[in-house]
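User: Predict structure, ligand adenosine-5'-triphosphate.
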Amino acid sequence: MSHSFEDALSEAALPASGEPAYLKGLNPHQREAVLSQDGPVLVLAGAGTGKTRVLTTRLAHLLHSRKAYPGQILAVTFTNKAAREMKERIGMLIGGVVEGMQWLGTFHSIGARMLRRHAELAGLKSNFTILDTDDQLRLIKQVVKAADLDEKRHPPRQLAALIDRWKNRGWLPADVPNGEAYGYAAGKGALLYAAYQQRLLDLNTADFGDLLLAPIKILRENPDVLEEYRRRFVYMLVDEYQDTNIAQHQWLKLLADPRHNICCVGDDDQSIYGWRGAEVDNILSFERDYPGAKVVRLERNYRSTPEILSAASGLIKENRGRHGKTLWTEAAEGDRVTVLSVWDAEEEARQIADELELLPKKGERLASAAILVRASHQMREFEERFVAVGLPYRVIGGPRFYERQEIRDALAYLRVVHQGDDDLAFERIVNKPKRGIGDKALQDIQTAARRMGVSLGMAARRLADSDEITGKARTSLRQLMDGFDRWRIAAGSLPHVDLATLVLEESGYVEMWQADKSVEAEGRLENLKELIRSMEGFENLQGFLEHVSLVMEAEQNETGDKVSIMTLHGAKGLEFDTVFLPGWEEGLFPSQRSMDENGLAGLEEERRLAYVGITRGKKRVQISHAANRRTHGLWQSAIPSRFVSELPPGAVELKEGLGGGGFNARQGFSENRWSNADFSSSYDSPGWKRAQSNVRPGMQRPRAPLIEAQATIVSSDPDSAGFGRGDEVLHAKFGRGKVTHADGNKLTVRFQDGSEKKVIAAFLNRA
Ligand code: ATP
Ligand code: MG
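Assistant: Predicted complex:
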């Protein structure tokens, strides 16, 4: 098996025809990194220099030269998507499908796999569930409550953040230093952390941090297990090493010792997860961790035009704490990076949609373009516009889809079917839809469970058959528990997709949304359908639930030519011909929160994020900023991001948004002597009121969400309500009705279903 570096080099010296084709395209430095097979290797290089390509080729080469079997290579990628792509690329390089790469994936997925194999060593059963952040918080709340702490003075969220941070550092409860533990409830932090861990074990569940922390503990405490893995992983490869945290670093080090056949690639300028505990020091101290490491630097960028590269390099130069790097390219000159200024997010979305629509006409694919946002709330505007004009898109990154309320509810049902003692899931759905099992009944169940030392489900089953609970709650509980019995039996024979449909229908959950007349209900039903569809790709319920817990990308319908929308964080490592970077405004990007919490370090991390964004582009990059943005329901005037002014002027071209045929905001403004300064913080501001009263007939109002806009007008001018007794009206939610009483803009309306409701005129239209 052993095959020295010298051998490898002489292999490289073979005549071109004698070496595998995948080596041919590499430059000498990349080649060196691929061919130094044994011993530690670090590739520390800027964006687009081929680090990931080196890693993939190296993996292919290890397999091709029979240095290791697929099952003997541990390869860590940043996302599940990256893992899939890597498998595909390796398949292309060495031909055929790559079977048996069981240990290629994200830290989370590999950690989960390891933990399942040895769950009992960590006090878990191998069918443990993985807790998502929402459930994690609920559990922490329970722990805080059980300790009789005042939730207001000691917010559970704060404890959750601390525990997360401790886990990222590889600390078990006993490891938390006193000073740190003082960060919560006068030193109770570590105790509560221990209590929380115990609760996790009781529930047979692990949170994300545990997926690595528990394996570290297992490896440390069980030398035979450690030995097994050290023997198994002959080679280790890690992408995006700059974003590993301390726990990940410890886990890698445990496995890599003493052989040190580890190759890490990364770029300190792209470290963007400091807020999640990433330690850029890991990459900078690689040579200390692995003495004698070969360090390879790559300088040629193969991805972007010189203009894009120069914009990115100019920007990142502003960061002080960095090791300077040179990047050069032989790519032909291209377009300058454009900076577009628009009126608001709606115009931004419209402009970008217009440009995207031109792509297919120019013979380019939509899939070659991406919109990278700083904050996920920016996405909705694009989604709405794209839906309106029928532009195919997909949202990538973040577990958003699975975080939606209806999806989480549906998953909770499935989790209880799958694992009867999943208390958190049980709590979530026991009274959803409302079936008369209120807080009181739930408390009874909880007390019973505690007294009997059983799960909530089990306790509920028993209570339902007793007289402890009476009336509606009892009948409903019995119905629900009978349902679970039935569904579990069905699970034995029914395909999981059909099972899910059955559960959601019989439980009354689907009906609940069908009966809901709110605007979102329809979308929620669509999402539920989408959930069922997404289950088809899995062998069974367990596989699906596991996927959901792990998935970092919301993969909605992967096929087809679609533009991608994702966060900047999610875009790391990816590349697109055309990249749109919207929302470059102070406060949004750089994010105010990040600067408030971490000062200069926060700002520099934001700047690295901007660098990541620009360097995703191969041919075209367009940055945009709006003069007004609505955040948390309030309109705010915005000023362009400082990052815009930090771009080297030579690489940039300024562009004015002209609103594409809609209301020309800027003209409207000058006519009415509005200034941006007037247009501040909220609808109640004098600026906004003035704006409203300056609107003349025939002229479109400045864009604002319809309802609020109307509401404001109504309140500043009661006459405009204009509804009187006897008028036939239409209400968005309640439907058609007749006004029975009018008092300014406050009306009483009798609706067709016979109900009488007090409504605000702003929500009514004439029927
Ligand atoms: P990032 O820092 O963004 O993760 P990276 O360093 O991992 O970037 P890659 O994604 O591996 O860079 O490569 C960037 C692009 O350059 C890819 O399209 C890749 O195929 C191409 N590339 C890399 N090396 C070469 C080469 N030697 N010849 C031609 N193209 C190359
Ligand atoms: Mg990469």
